[in-house]
Amino acid sequence: MSKLIDGALFCAMVIEGALCIEDQKEQANALNVFPVPDGDTGTNMSLTMSSARQEVAKLSEPTLAKAADTTASALLRGARGNSGVILSLLFRGVAKHLKKAADPAGGMDLALALSEGVRAAYKAVMKPAEGTILTVSRVSAQHALELCQSNPEIGCDVVLDEVIRSAEEALAETQHQNPVLEKAGVVDAGGFGYIAVLKGMRDAYHGIQKEHKQAEAEQPTGGVFSEIRDEDITFTYCTEFIAERRDRSRNVQRLRSFLSTIGDSLVVVEDDEIVKVHVHTDQPNEALAKGLQFGPLLTVKIENMRQQHSAKIVEEAAGLESRRVIAEPEKRYGFVAVAAGEGLVNVFHDLGADEVVEGGQTMNPSTDDILKAIDAVPAEIVYVLPNNKNIIMAAEQAIPLCETKQVIVIGTRNIPQGISAMLIFDPDGEPEDNTEAMKDAINSVRSGQVTYAARNSDFDGKKIKKDEYLALFESRLCANSKKMDDAIKKLVREMTRSDCSFANIIYGESMTEEDAERVQAMFLKERPDLECTIINGGQPVYYFILSTEG
Fold first, then answer.
1. How many CB atoms lie under 10 A from the CB of residue 125?
2. 471: which DSSP letter?
3. Quick one: 308 exposed, middle or buried, by C-beta within 10 A (0-12, 13-18, 19+)?
4. Helices 156-177 and 107-124, interaxial angle, to 10°?
5. DSSP assignment letter at 80
6. Both ends of the chain: CA-CA distance in Å?
7. How far apart (Å, rounded) are the C-alpha atoms in residues 240 and 96?
8. Which of 110, 193, 275, 351 is the most exposed place for a label (fewest CB within 10 A)?
9. Residue 150 burial (CB count, 10 A)
């Protein structure tokens, strides 16, 4: 008879899943199509799972709900890169179901939990793409659920086997669902990493303990999370309540619709017994009145966000305050930027950034890294500049963890966009106006980078050899060559085709000012009236980061 999954077993499964993706992270990294040396998928997923491994290892005789909740909380805070964030969202949904499932849980609950994870991930990703980890998780969870619906007595062992079998079939199909993967002849790296985690979890379920490589050391993360999403607080009162669902005829969707007309940052969570609401509004009395229509209010919390400086975290985060140091607001606005290289760190500090999280392409910072930086900024409103497309999702995950500050993530995809955003900022302006101005500013920046190929690759019909110089324009491959100057010349020509008046040349740790002046000469040859600025960025990986603006 198939054994059930209790809290202790779930913890063992999470630990083994983390160790398994750690073992296979380089295989996942090798599947990355673009050969740029970056925070690769396997590395990000491994570090994300490592945060959960460390936290669940601390639990002593946990319930299944506690084990699942601890896992989801640690993954959320430790999430790195887009793949790590999506992995954390999958486990967040799993935890949501297991917290209300039978303890220990059987095959049906496991299938339902996996399906809930898929829903959570798809709901959070703005533009879900097929041929990715999302596809692999969805197809495999749906297969397991259909199997259990046809035979509710199926055990966890069969569910795990079938989920993995179906996931491997779905992974093979990703090569044909994504044109870029098909040209390169590889499958999706995120889907591969997800299966590695599942296989480790299955091993632990069967009591199999394999020998593993030495796992990378990682700072303990852990903690708890809130489901609140808040991108732009504009109302005075943070209003939270839990209403008992005595009147089951009341429509929760209508409650959501009403609350959205009187406030923002709205989250409504429901189950068979309660409705939990979080909303920022100027009419908390009207929100509470609507809640009372469902039944008695079990808890109520109303805070004036313009006066409240100390954190009172929502109930599932009780006890976290003692572990966080949150700076008291001394000003209205503050900035957190992400950058790598002493020169760039200094540039952002000079532009007014309060905190600079050191990281970027080679090491994507975690949500917790960004959260700690936000906590340290003594401001009411904190702008976050990720400066890398693979860090944006992790930054956005920090928003619901900041209850005492308004956090606005500006989706800067590279360093030049981050610099332009800070230059356009008006300290006397309103948040809405500054946000709009910064978004407009970053859209006017044309950016390029010069780096090297970390691996052999066939990208977009071009054969790329390891260690070749790569010139990227707007994240697209512009040129690859054995000679750096040849690649730079093609990039400069591409960047100056449109009208532009200014150019920034940021040189990296292995380059000199003389090298940068050579690039400046290339720009002036194409556009003699161009105004060029040379910056010693000291960044790793990228020999040069270039930008032009009108």
1. 16
2. E
3. middle
4. 30
5. B
6. 70
7. 20
8. 351
9. 8
pLDDT digits (tens, 9 = 90+) for 382-413: 999 999 999 999 999 999 999 889 999 999 99
Strands 263-270 and 406-409, how do they pair? unpaired
Q: How far is CA 55 from CA 86, 194, 197, in A?
A: 19, 20, 17
Residue 457 has pLDDT above 60, yes or no: yes
CB 494 within 8 A of CB 487: no
Cα(166)–Cα(424) distance, integer angstroms: 50
Q: CA 318 to CA 403: how far, in whole Å? A: 12
DSSP reduced 3-state for 457: strand
31 — phi, psi (to 5°)? -85, -10
pLDDT digits (tens, 9 = 90+) for 426-435: 999 999 999 9
- Residue 371 φ/ψ, nearest 5 degrees: -60, -45
Whether residue 21 contacts residue 176, with contact meaning beta carbons closer than 8 Å, is answered with no
Q: Is 521 exposed, middle or buried (0-12, 13-18, 19+ CB in 10 A)?
A: exposed
User: Could you tell me which of 291, 256, 259 has the C-alpha nearest to residue 274?
Assistant: 291
Collect all residues with Cβ–Cβ distance below 8 Å to 334 and sequence separation of at least 6.
Answer: 354, 355, 377, 378, 379, 381, 382, 383
CB distance 78 to 111 below 8 Å: no
